[in-house]
């Protein structure tokens, strides 16, 4: 089969707290390249790996990863609300294929997703309902987190199962790289916040607006030099991209959760989505080639921001 992959950082601050025009122009060029790559590849199915930010998954039950046979976006940070165009038959086939390969996948018959899923679909396809998709949530926020080797195993199993579909599949990763945005943390949270993180009480529109404004303000503070967050770490980000580019995916098995958080910040774990997508590509297509790679540290977006495309050689 043929397979391809795209990795794309997301940020809730895009369009809300933008960097200088020259930075925006470089990002726009990289994104346009990824869009053209996707258009030329013309995928028949997109397997989208993305995290959640306490909109769909909560601490009452937090799976390390979960595949959806139906999904609805909440519409946070200006992204679209409503159903994703999930290919339910393909989702069920992939779920069975992954379980058959011994990876204990959680399956959701109605997943709630946020900007982590919606933004890449809007950026690359013009909407959340434009392309047949199989959403795969990868926890990159809530601790405790398991070893990265399990994410690679998930990606490999999905890739092998996808190869059996005999369709042009695009593995799309949303998130990372190093960044430390103000996502709430359960440990040490005041009782009301802890309760919301555990139970998943839907925020009122006012509460959601306040939360989003807090993130925008954090972006402004960070771009102005606030040191409250762990800095973006371009060296760490390039190390990650180098391993992906050279197909050295087993290297990630030795990356520890603690080192990742220390070097890349609390949301650096979103790179799990990238590791899963590239493991899927490797499993589905054999050796692959990274055909484009863009990186820039963008404090205004609180993001080590990357865009990469890769094509299987099979
Ligand atoms: O209300 C809140 O606190 C929402 C915080 C939030 O969703 C932040 C998200 C940040 C990212 O997705 C990111 O930088 O990757
Ligand atoms: Fe995120």
TrEMBL record:
Keywords: Aromatic hydrocarbons catabolism, Dioxygenase, Iron, Oxidoreductase. It catalyses: (2E)-3-(2,3-dihydroxyphenyl)prop-2-enoate + O2 = (2Z,4E,7E)-2-hydroxy-6-oxonona-2,4,7-trienedioate + H(+); 3-(2,3-dihydroxyphenyl)propanoate + O2 = (2Z,4E)-2-hydroxy-6-oxonona-2,4-dienedioate + H(+). Its EC number is 1.13.11.16. It is an enzyme of class 1 (oxidoreductase). It comes from the Bacteria. The active site is at residues 115, 179. The keyword Chloroplast does not apply. The keyword Hydrolase does not apply. Its cofactor is Fe(2+). Pathway: Aromatic compound metabolism; 3-phenylpropanoate degradation. Residues 5-305 form the Extradiol ring-cleavage dioxygenase class III enzyme subunit B domain. It holds the Pfam family LigB. One of its GO terms (molecular function) is ferrous iron binding. One of its GO terms (biological process) is 3-phenylpropionate catabolic process. Catalyzes the non-heme iron(II)-dependent oxidative cleavage of 2,3-dihydroxyphenylpropionic acid and 2,3-dihydroxicinnamic acid into 2-hydroxy-6-ketononadienedioate and 2-hydroxy-6-ketononatrienedioate, respectively. Belongs to the LigB/MhpB extradiol dioxygenase family. Homotetramer. This is 2,3-dihydroxyphenylpropionate/2,3-dihydroxicinnamic acid 1,2-dioxygenase.
């Amino acid at each position: 089969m043929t397979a391809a992959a795209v990795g794309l950082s997301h940020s809730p601050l895009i369009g809300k707290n933008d960097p200088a025009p020259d930075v925006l122009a470089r990002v726009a060029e990289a994104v346009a390249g990824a869009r053209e790559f996707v258009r030329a590849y013309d995928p028949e199915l997109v397997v989208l790996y993305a995290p959640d930010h306490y909109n769909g998954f909560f601490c009452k039950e937090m799976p390390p990863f979960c595949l959806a046979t139906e999904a609805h976006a909440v519409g946070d940070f200006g992204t679209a609300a409503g159903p994703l165009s999930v290919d339910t038959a393909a989702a069920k086939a992939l779920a069975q294929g992954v379980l058959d390969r011994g990876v204990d996948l959680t399956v959701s018959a109605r997943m709630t997703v946020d900007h982590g899923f919606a933004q890449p679909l809007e950026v690359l396809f013009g909407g959340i309902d434009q392309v047949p998709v199989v959403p795969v949530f990868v926890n990159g926020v809530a601790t405790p987190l398991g070893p990265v080797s399990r994410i690679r195993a998930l990606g490999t199993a999905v890739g092998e199962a996808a190869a059996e579909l005999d369709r042009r599949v695009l593995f799309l990763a949303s998130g990372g790289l190093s960044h430390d945005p103000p996502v709430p943390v359960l440990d040490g949270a005041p009782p009301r916040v802890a309760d919301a993180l555990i139970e998943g009480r839907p925020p009122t529109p006012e509460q959601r607006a306040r939360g989003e404004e807090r993130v925008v303000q954090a972006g402004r503070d960070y771009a102005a030099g606030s040191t409250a967050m762990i800095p973006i770490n371009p060296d760490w980000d390039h190390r990650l991209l180098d391993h992906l580019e050279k197909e050295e995916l087993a290297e990630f098995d030795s990356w520890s959760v603690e080192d990742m958080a220390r070097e890349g910040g609390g949301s650096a774990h979103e790179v799990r989505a990238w590791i899963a997508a590239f493991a899927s590509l490797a499993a589905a297509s054999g050796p692959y080639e990274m055909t484009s790679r863009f990186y820039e540290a963008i404090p205004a977006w609180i993001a080590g921001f990357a865009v990469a495309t890769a094509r299987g050689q099979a």
